[in-house]
Write a structure and sequence with these properties.
The structure holds two protein chains of two kinds. Chain A is built from five helices and five strands; from the N terminus they run βαβαβαβαβα. In chain A, helix 2 packs parallel to helix 3 (61-70). The radius of gyration of chain A is 13 Å and the shape is globular. Chain A has a single domain, classed as Response regulator (Rossmann fold, 3-Layer(aba) Sandwich). By secondary structure, chain A is of the alpha/beta class. In chain A, strand 3 (49-53), helix 3 (61-70) and strand 4 (79-83) form a beta-alpha-beta unit. By secondary structure, chain B is an alpha+beta fold. In chain B, the strands form five sheets. In chain B, strands 6, 7, 8, 9, 10 and 11 form a six-stranded antiparallel β-sheet that branches. Chain B has a five-stranded antiparallel β-sheet with strand order 2-1-5-4-3, sandwiched between helices. A five-stranded mixed β-sheet of chain B has the order 13-15-16-20-19, covered by helices on one side. In chain B, a hairpin with a 5-residue loop joins strand 19 and strand 20 (486-493). In chain B, helix 10 packs antiparallel against helix 11, helix 11 (303-333) packs parallel to helix 15 (461-471) and helix 13 (383-400) packs antiparallel against helix 15 (461-471). The radius of gyration of chain B is 43 Å and the shape is rod-shaped. The chains are: A alpha/beta, B alpha+beta. Chains A and B meet through helix 1 of A and helix 10 of B.
Chain lengths: 129, 495
């Protein structure tokens, strides 16, 4: 069946929305309400895709990905940055930080699942359901 | 010792005048105590050197050589001229040169006496100025100080007395440098000599910080205007001096205020950026869950529920666009919106716009058409901003039109220089009253149409679009007549 997805998001309502949409589509979802929890989960369990909010208190999305990439236990999977405002130059800095893609909030439920499918299909060694 | 001998020695050591013996070519053979006192060179520094190198200003070498020649042919010559001291300062001297026999045989020598007549000259120049220009100089609103080519003050008007605290008697004949703080004096002396070699009206030290020095030792910032003043055979320098303490003070205060304003503006932009983020976060779940409900993910909807959810969705999206526009506007106001002007293919952008909005037009059963030239037209624009403007104008056209069509046309403006391109967005909507056309680009305008008010105001969209167009050297025009539709025209430069 479809893959395992980690959602790191500090806004509970947004987290609920993402979890709802993904679980409805049959994905197995683990949620993390802050960067530190997300970082631990990402290193402890294995996922096919990680969605990560950028603007979080304490550990930001940028810090989460930087720490993952410098950790010897990290097995890379596609990471999607979720952010509330797109400014010129944002996309470049997000991609430079090592994210696979960039998604702006508010997310559009119509296209959201299609995007997730596409990113999972791109993931090496995954997408074979 | 004869009485005469006694006085002779005194006269020699105490003479206020300089006594010098020269060869016909100007080599110094004798340099007495008076010469040392007058010019600052000790006999050991002077003897054996050329008089020309020692005390004759460059511009007067020719004159001195001529006078020595006259002394040679006529036996004696008397004249008045300018000489310089060891420290570079200048003085007026009255010179008498006389041919004398050479005690060692050989070519005759020249005996030259020099008397300091600077004060006499000052008095004479002062008299000339006062008789000619006094009324004029006392009537000007600035402090006026007039200086002779030796750098000595010959005139000091009443404003100057008030500004510097000296009386004219205290300063007449003093070097102008007494009015400058110590640290500027040496440099000023050099500038002054330079000025007299090429006198012309100019303001002194543009962009420099100049200061005056009062009698009581206090300093104040000044602006100085210089101009030459011809009085008979002498070129004097007139300086008009203005105390700019108040202006300086205001400049400083303005600078401080500007810094404070910049900080406040930056804080405002930061605030708007973080506020925008905070406002968008809850909208994420509002728009998201409205979407899931409308997609019937949790279960079926009845007609009333669907209608109300659509209203929630429309309002939430409107709120989102207002927040986005507000942030863009804040960035424009703070000059933080960075636009990259490049050659943008207009048809590519127009196709994107039509793809984005086609469905919306179809839902309202409007005819949506686009007319583009055969070849590609490149505009000088920022791609994102151009697309934002066109989406905004087209979206408005669709939103406000209930029947008929929305038509996009791109055409080059004939005979325009620099070459301009027009993108017209025409609708068959209700049109606007003249007074509404006039304020179409004001923020938060709501248009009255007949007896009803347009359901959704344009918010900030048109206002922002016009600002973006201006930043790209373009503009948006609006034409409309009540009952006959509206046309917005974006005029841009062709790349």
């Amino acid at each position: 069946m479809a893959g395992r997805i980690l959602v790191i998001e500090d806004d509970p309502a947004s987290l609920e929305l993402l979890k709802y949409l993904l679980e409805r589509a049959g994905y197995s979802v683990r949620s993390a309400p802050d960067g530190a929890t997300g970082l631990r989960a990402a290193l402890e369990y294995s996922f096919d895709l990680i969605l990560c909010d950028l603007q979080m208190p304490e550990l930001t999305g940028f810090e989460v990905i930087a720490r993952l990439r410098s950790s010897p236990d990290w097995r890379p999977v596609p990471m999607i940055a979720v952010t509330a405002y797109s400014m010129p130059g944002d996309r470049e800095s997000v991609m430079a930080a090592g994210f696979t893609e960039y998604m702006t909030k508010p997310i559009d439920p119509d296209n959201f699942l299609a995007d997730i499918d596409r990113w999972l299909a791109q993931a090496p060694g995954s997408g074979t359901t | 010792m004869t009485p005469t001998g006694k006085y002779e020695a005194l006269a020699q050591s105490e003479s206020p005048d300089a006594v010098v013996v020269l060869t016909a070519s100007g080599e110094i053979l004798h340099w007495d105590a008076g010469a040392e006192a007058l010019f600052g060179f000790a006999p050991a520094d002077a003897i054996g050197r050329s008089l020309f190198d020692l005390i004759v200003p460059d511009s007067l070498r020719h004159e001195e050589a001529g006078r020595l020649a006259v002394a040679g042919t006529e036996g004696t010559v008397t004249f008045e001229s300018l000489r310089q001291r060891k420290d570079g300062s200048r003085l007026y001297v009255c010179i008498t040169s006389k041919t004398i026999p050479n005690p060692d045989g050989g070519d005759p020598l020249i005996l030259s006496t020099k008397k300091d007549v600077t004060q006499l000259r000052v008095l004479r120049d002062a008299q000339r100025i006062e008789s000619k220009f006094r009324d004029l100089l006392e009537s000007v609103p600035d402090a006026v100080v007039i200086v002779n080519p030796a750098g000595h003050i010959v005139y000091f008007n009443e404003h100057s007395q008030r500004l510097f605290g000296y009386t004219p008697e205290e300063l007449k004949g003093e070097p102008i440098e007494v009015l400058l703080p110590e640290r500027f004096r040496a440099a000023h002396l050099a500038h002054r000599v330079g000025y007299f070699s090429q006198p012309r009206p100019r303001s002194m030290g543009i962009g420099l910080e100049l200061y005056g020095l009062r009698k009581d030792g206090s300093e104040f910032p000044v602006d100085i205007g210089l101009s030459p003043l011809q009085v008979e055979d002498t070129t004097l320098a007139m300086s008009a001096i203005r105390d700019i303490s108040v202006r300086k003070q205001i400049e400083l205060e303005l600078r401080d205020k500007n810094v404070a304003l910049e900080k406040a503006n930056f804080a405002k932009t930061q605030f708007l950026a973080s506020m925008s983020h905070e406002l968008r976060t809850p909208l994420n779940s509002i728009i998201g869950f409205t979407g899931t409900l409308l997609m019937r993910m949790p279960g079926p909807l009845n007609e009333g529920q669907e209608k109300q959810l659509r209203t929630v969705q429309t309002s939430a999206r409107h709120l989102l666009s207002l927040i986005n526009d507000l942030l863009d506007l804040a960035k424009i106001e703070a000059d933080r919106l960075e636009l990259e002007l490049e050659a943008v293919d207009s048809s590519a952008v127009l196709h994107e716009v039509s793809e984005t909005l086609m469905t919306q037009a179809e839902q309202k059963k409007l005819q949506f058409t686009m007319a583009l030239p055969q070849d590609s037209v490149f505009l000088k624009a920022d791609r994102r901003a151009l697309s934002q403007i066109l989406i905004n104008l087209t979206d408005n056209a669709i939103k406000f039109t209930d029947y008929g069509s929305v038509r996009l046309t791109l055409a080059r403006r004939a005979d325009s220089f620099p070459k301009q391109v027009e993108i017209r967005i025409e609708d068959t909507g209700p049109g606007m009253r003249n007074e509404d056309v006039a304020r179409a680009f004001d923020p938060f305008t709501r248009f009255g149409v007949g007896d009803r008010v347009m359901k959704a105001g344009t918010g900030l969209g048109l206002h922002l679009s016009q600002k973006l167009a201006t930043r790209m050297e373009g503009r948006i025009l609006c034409e409309s007549r009540l009952g006959h539709g509206t046309t917005f025209t974006l005029v841009m430069l062709e790349a």
